[in-house]
Amino acid sequence: MTMNDAQALPITASHPHHRVATTSRRQMLMQAGAGFGGLALADLLSRGASAQAAGVSPKLDRRHHFAKAKRVIFLFIEGGPSHIDLFDPKPELNRLAGKPLPPSFKRPLTAMGEAGSDLLACKRKWKQHGQAGTWVSDWLPHTAGIVDDIAVLRSCHADGLNHVGSVCQMNTGSVLGGRPSLGAWVTYGLGTENQDLPAFVVLLDKGDYVTGGSRNWSTGFMPATYQGTRFRNGSVPIDNLATPSGVSDEQQQAKLALLKKMNKRHHASRAFETELDARIRSYELAARMQLTAPEAVDLSQESDYVKSMYGLNDQSTMGMGRACLLARRMVERGVRFVQVYSGAGSKWDAHSGIESNHTRMCKSMDQPVAALVRDLKQRGLLEDTLVVWGGEFGRTPMSEKGTGRDHNPWGFTMWFAGGGVNAGATVGQTDELGLYAIKDHAHIHSIHATILHLLGVDHTRLTYLLNGKPERATVNEGHVVEKLLG
Predict the structure, then answer these.
(1) How many domains are there within the chain?
(2) CB–CB of 206/348 below 8 Å?
């Protein structure tokens, strides 16, 4: 436990101002370890609670105004999708293709150094779709069918140049690790609607790695109980959840009762140790999840029609389809914040061969994401579920290695659906080449402020006291993007 952990006191709660002598964590585990053997999620001890799981937060409510959204599904398109090839057509880019960036443009410093390559044409075919007339390229035919339910924000911008810092900033508001993730702030502010499942769940389409790791769903300086819980891919999303064979229900309940008693006694004089509190809560949650989670993650309950709609019968869409369908089942059961990673491990990164890269990645993501929005809508969930789509940055109009595009944090696109957004709207603008945002600028802090606003939270008033200083999710910056509001 760090000094920050000890000194981070919620502004809405009172704490004693002294600490008593404590035994070491090793001693505590040696004393209490006998009760852990039959308990679900016991692997937390070896993996570390902050990296893998968190307990459920209290059912609380820090809303400041009427909330149009009750929950969030954040579709994180990791690696940097090219906005100028997906949602932001630039005819001038194709007219100037093969030529250097015009002198009138400030030459940006990219991830690979000072930009100096020629402009790279967009090979996509563009068309306006829906009653809104939203522009979408032929890479996203399924998304094109839901444009009247989404609001496109073309003027996003960020601070980071590399993936680690930029993924971190889109999640936490800072390019440096150590701050709470947006999901943690939401969980801290609103709690959960289901005491038998985590309030904050993280899902990956494929693989087992997100750039920057678990800090992207951590709590930073806040109590560890608000962190996200990673569900794994495959048939067993949550490790060690099943009761061991040969252990009866009566034996299991007796073990849990004893462990709860021991934990309560041990924690009584250690209220400041947030990691200990998070572990205790996670074990208690695990016991409840033994009854509820198997049903929640059981996709065999879904009809063949629904599975086909999400693309579970196609190898190329199966990973993201499974994650999106699980996301719907999570919010259906009261999970507050679900984050789904498409291209986990920077698979959308396209410094070369953007045609082959984005063709493959769009194929994997397009159908499942459109299915999610449609499914939420037909079940009456989209109205109060906010769906957010976007990556850590976009890509440059200049070519890299002749066939790719570099990172572009100065102007890129995200979209939003449900939860009170102005469906069908296109907000903001980048310049004629898609390099810089020039109208209705929306920094990541403003994006976070808008998400919190739709959840009924004023980002300037949701605070956490750290070393005497009130900390905010938006790092004392940002504004609500009013044009996105319905």
Answers:
(1) 1
(2) no
Look up the CATH number of the domain holding residue 391. Answer: 3.40.720
Give the side-chain half-sphere CA count within 13 A for 314: 14
> What's the pLDDT score for residue 460?
96
Domain assignment present for 229? yes
Res 25 pLDDT > 80: no
The per-residue pLDDT for range 451-469, each reduced to its tens digit, is 999 999 999 999 999 999 9
**Cα gap 254→114, rounded to integer Å:** 64
CA 122 to chain CA centroid, nearest Å: 29
Q: Determine whether 420 is exposed, middle or buried from the number of CB atoms within 10 Å of its CB (0-12, 13-18, 19+).
A: buried
Alpha carbon distance 51, 54 (integer Å) = 9
Report yes or no: 237 and 299 within 8 Å, Cβ to Cβ.
no
Which tops the pLDDT comparison, 59 or 368? 368
Q: Flag whether 201 is in a domain.
A: yes
Is 5 inside a domain boundary?
A: yes
Residue type, 427: V
What pLDDT score does 348 carry?
98
- Residue 88: inside a domain, yes or no? yes
**pLDDT at residue 23 greater than cutoff 70:** no
Spatial neighbors of 13 by CB under 8 A, at least 6 apart, are: none
Candidates 290, 291, 380; CA nearest to 328 is 380
pLDDT at 274: 66
Give the confidence band of 251 by pLDDT, cuts at 50, 70, 90.
Answer: confident
3-class DSSP assignment, residue 469: strand
H or E element that contains 126: strand 126-129
What pLDDT is attached to residue 282?
A: 67
- pLDDT beyond 90 at 253: no
Burial of residue 264 (CB within 10 Å: 0-12, 13-18, 19+) is exposed
The parent domain of residue 320 ranges over: 1-13+23-100+130-486
User: Do you know the residue count of the chain?
Assistant: 486
Furthest CA-CA distance within the chain: 76
Residue 453: closest CA among 478, 428, 426: 478
Identify the bridge partners of residue 134 per DSSP, sorted by sequence position.
Answer: 129
Main-chain phi, psi angles of 396, to 5 degrees: -80, 155
Question: What predicted TM-score, i.e. pTM, was given to this entire model?
Answer: 0.83
Helix 182-190 with 444-454: angle, nearest 10 deg: 30
